[in-house]
Design a protein that fits this description.
The chain is of the alpha/beta class and 458 residues long. The protein has 20 helices and eight strands. β3, α14 and β4 form a beta-alpha-beta unit.
Length: 458
């Protein structure tokens, strides 16, 4: 058990879930409080000791099922389904469909587990040494099992009913119950596929195959629809945590340098001994942030998330102004001011911002020139400018002098690029031409890097 818990903790760390040494010791201590045979209590006890963020719980649950799959208690069904499984059932599909409908209608957990094992053995195509992923085996078994077809037949039978048609609330309740049984069957099939793979390949190999990036590690430019939704859910909690941390740091750093005169004066009451050193109190000023974001093409998702994130912690800045551009540029600060829903404000940016000047393709040179001429005089030594974009200029003139003018007026000028560093200055990318005028050019491909950067400038 010690080796299993250690491997489980190591896999959590590899997946990006932060686990300290103390927390790993707490997880070991939890073994004595919740025996592995009680899977629900065992999972929750380990989650209580190892998981600190709600967005990390799905990764924990997946890895828990992998590392503890071989220790699941064996079901003890007393049904024809279990007998069919034990006899290596090879009957026709009609008989299997009848068993499936019986399991869905009754919802007996033991029968569902037995049917899942039967379906995996017969349909999943699993064979020793076959290098196929868990998703392939799972989808193959579910497709051949056709639980949705069985569900439709059961719902049709429920509507007709032997004692008359079932309608209204009763029908809805029955439908919800059948769908819950179907979902339980799908989970059982997935668990059985995972159990067999772990038995053959070991938990570490299966965990690597199932590993998915945490929401804060998903790349903005390559996120799927589901990953985008996870990013949106993770954004607000991340912003709240960062705002609290920045406020705490600002409170703790108020003490300034030693005030020698005040220290000597107060030491007179102690006979000249400086028992209570006195310090000058700083007056920390919050920076003013100006965000200039490219919202064209594949970098649009990165720009939207960054704008939403910065405005979510706007209380940590004295002022936040936002500008978006493609080949034209427009200020969109008013769309965020007083907005209760920042997601809605970002959507309004997409529809209301005037960012097309000529052809609608990125032209950093023209956009930066207009920004420097129109809004450059409003920049002050308290202003920090953050440019968001991949610097792919479609072979237009760079007009780097306009960026140099902005840098000369502002306190700081940073550039965030959502592309990997290896892509910089390839093709039509001209990052280096702009980098010489910036205080820093940073790779910012995910929420983790964005949080780190915003925390530093605040």
């Amino acid at each position: 058990m010690l080796d299993v818990v250690e491997g489980f903790v190591a896999e959590l760390r590899a997946a990006g879930v932060p686990v300290s040494l103390t927390e790993s010791l707490d997880a070991l201590a939890a073994v004595g409080q919740a025996h592995v045979a009680d899977r629900a209590r065992c999972r929750e006890a380990r989650a209580a000791t190892l998981v600190k963020r709600a967005e990390h719980r799905p990764a924990f649950d997946t890895l828990f099922e992998v590392w503890f799959s071989l220790r699941a208690p064996e079901p003890e069904p007393d049904s024809a389904l279990a007998l069919a499984e034990q006899a290596d059932f090879e009957g026709p599909d009609e008989e299997l469909a009848a068993l499936l409908e019986k399991a869905l209608a009754g919802g007996d957990p033991a029968a569902v587990t037995a049917l899942a094992r039967l379906a995996v053995a017969r349909f999943a195509g699993m064979a020793p040494g076959r290098a196929l992923g868990p998703a392939y085996h799972l989808n193959r078994a579910l497709r051949r099992l056709d639980a949705d077809g069985a569900l439709a037949r059961l719902l049709g039978a429920a509507q007709e009913g032997e004692g008359g048609p079932v309608e209204g609330l009763e029908l809805r309740l029955r439908a919800d119950q059948l769908r819950a049984h179907r979902d339980r069957l799908r989970d059982a099939v997935e668990s059985e596929v995972r159990r067999r793979l772990v038995a053959e390949q070991g938990p570490a190999a299966v965990a690597r195959a199932l590993r998915r990036p945490l929401p804060e590690d998903v790349e903005f430019m390559h996120a799927t629809g589901d990953e985008m939704a996870a990013l949106r859910r993770a954004l607000q909690p991340l912003a709240r945590r960062l705002a609290v941390r920045l406020a705490r740091q600002r409170r703790h750093h108020r003490r300034g340098p030693l005030d020698f005169r005040s220290t000597v004066r107060h030491s007179l009451s102690y006979g000249g001994v400086p028992a209570e050193p006195r310090f000058r109190h700083r007056r920390p000023s919050k920076p003013e942030i100006v965000v200039v974001a490219d919202v064209s093409g594949s970098v649009a998702a990165f720009a939207r998330f960054t704008l939403q994130f910065v405005h979510a912690i706007s209380s940590q800045f004295s002022r936040v102004r936002s500008f978006v551009f493609v080949d034209g540029i427009d200020e969109v600060t008013h769309l965020f001011e007083g907005a209760d829903d920042l997601t809605e404000a970002v959507q309004r940016v997409n529809t209301e911002a005037d960012v097309i000047w000529a052809e609608g393709h990125s032209d950093y040179g023209h956009a930066l020139t207009v920004f420097a001429e129109r809004w450059g005089p409003e920049l002050t030594p308290r202003t920090s400018v953050v440019v968001l974009g991949d610097a792919r200029n479609n072979y237009h003139a760079s007009e780097a002098g306009a960026l140099a003018e902005v840098a000369g007026r502002a306190r700081h000028l940073w550039w965030l690029n959502p592309e990997p560093r290896s892509y910089w200055d390839t093709g039509d990318s001209i990052v280096s031409e702009y980098a010489v005028h910036c205080d820093g050019v940073h790779e910012c491909r995910n929420l983790r890097q964005l949080e780190r950067f915003v925390g530093r400038i605040a």
